[in-house]
Amino acid sequence: TGASRRIAVFGAGYIGLVTGACFAELGHRVVVRDIQPERIRLLNSGEVPFFEPGLGDLITRNKERLAFTLDVEEAVRDAEAVFVCVDTPPTASGDADLSRVWAVVDALRGASHLVAVVVKSTVPVGTGARVRAALDERDLGHVGYASNPEFTAEGRAVEDFLRPDRVVIGASDDAVARWVADLYGRLDSPVELMDVASAEMVKLASNALLATRITFINEIATVCEATGADIGHVSRAVGLDHRLGPHFLRAGLGYGGSCFPKDSRALRAMASNSGYPFQLLNAVIEVNELQPRRAIQRLKTELDGLKGRRIALLGMTFKPGTDDMREAPSTIIASRLLAEGATVTCWDPMAPHTDGRQEPWSSATRRPDPLGAMTDADAAILVTEWPELTDVDWTAAARLMRNPLLLDGRNLLDPAALLSAGFTHMGVGRGTRRPR
Ligand code: UDX
């Protein structure tokens, strides 16, 4: 097992680059193809187009086995398998836009030497069957097809890929399934073989269940606020039940990112399209959209209105350890605050500078450090749990603020410490505490 293979990866985004670099690390020869000239130029000059820990090193370390190109021919010519890692953004109807997947399939015309086409992109159940039919129509009937969804989380993608909880492979042909499994041969992780539709479903089900868990604990947090319980104790003790486990029980301002919001909406759309209203998932999506708005509402009540108030946002990215702003709760929070007539100052160590181009951040003032953002503010909202925020001198912050009030949207900080620093402290799922 674990023979060295030649692989073409279509798409040099998060999934494609991590897949390409990690397969190279596992000893395979990989050509990554993308349609964006700038992206390929960057990669060829040794740069990574986005931040992902360890990815740059991995690419450098394996550069002998890794090439980047715009050219389909060059990518496919010597490849034994093509991995489809293009993005599948939502369309107006909420369905996944598969046009990039189809563009790859079209580009494979004549590639009859391939052993397999493998889709890693997140796609609706049934896509594999349609790709299979399209391959057959293009005289590629003997080329195998497999679904091989990816479960890597941003910020730990390389580690997740090289030490996965499981590798999921869906194929109708056993030989193809084993061939794909063999690519991961050097990893010591369980391989789950199944049919294509089930593999497609695993990805959607996993993300929807994780989103549901987060949303469940967020709703418990709301009940805690209303009843005087403390979500910190509740989450911890609930998570100690071995049947539940401790992960994804952190209450906060709602999930964001490139996967959970998109994939849960795609699964809902998929269910609706087949005439089944996925009510539980529907509720999850609604509650998650409400979550940041609820926080704003609490703050509005506490400050007796937001008009003319200066609010500091600590953290902008959808989670720490990434520069990714996709579906970040901070965006909703900033635009709601601005709509209420507040002034917004913000800090984030990694969010890209938008040069004032992108709403709502164009109307927010960015500061290079948290204390700068909090100066003269009427309240601060901790939006992203950046570890840097635990090192802030909160006593100094309290003095710099017009009104030392912190809404800790991720329950990162110790309420007692904030209280003794002179803050009024609001957490998610715990009551408001005021200094004496
Ligand atoms: C996720 C999945 O983890 C990954 O398997 C999938 O392939 C892609 O989507 P990612 O979006 O990178 O990965 O981030 P993740 O760390 O899972 O967090 C997602 C969101 O949930 C973040 O906004 C985070 O703040 C939030 N979250 C997570 C909570 O609010 N509470 C938690 O307990 C955990």
Automatic annotation (TrEMBL):
Record flagged with keyword Coiled coil: no
Residues given in the record as NAD(+) binding sites: 34, 39, 88, 122, 154, 262, 326
Pathway recorded for this protein: Nucleotide-sugar biosynthesis; UDP-alpha-D-glucuronate biosynthesis; UDP-alpha-D-glucuronate from UDP-alpha-D-glucose: step 1/1
Annotated SMART domains: UDPG_MGDP_dh_C (SM00984)
Enzyme Commission code: 1.1.1.22
GO molecular function: NAD binding; UDP-glucose 6-dehydrogenase activity
Reaction catalysed by this enzyme: UDP-alpha-D-glucose + 2 NAD(+) + H2O = UDP-alpha-D-glucuronate + 2 NADH + 3 H(+)
Annotated substrate binding sites: 151-154, 203, 248-252, 256, 319
Catalytic residues (positions): 259 (nucleophile)
Keyword annotations from UniProtKB, A to Z: NAD, Oxidoreductase
Pfam family, one: UDPG_MGDP_dh_N
UniProt GO BP: polysaccharide biosynthetic process; UDP-glucuronate biosynthetic process
Enzyme class: oxidoreductase
UniProt keyword Glycoprotein present: no
UDP-glucose/GDP-mannose dehydrogenase C-terminal domain segment(s): 312-415
Region feature (Disordered): 351-371
Family affiliation: Belongs to the UDP-glucose/GDP-mannose dehydrogenase family.
PANTHER family: UDP-GLUCOSE 6-DEHYDROGENASE TUAD
Identification of the protein by name: UDP-glucose 6-dehydrogenase
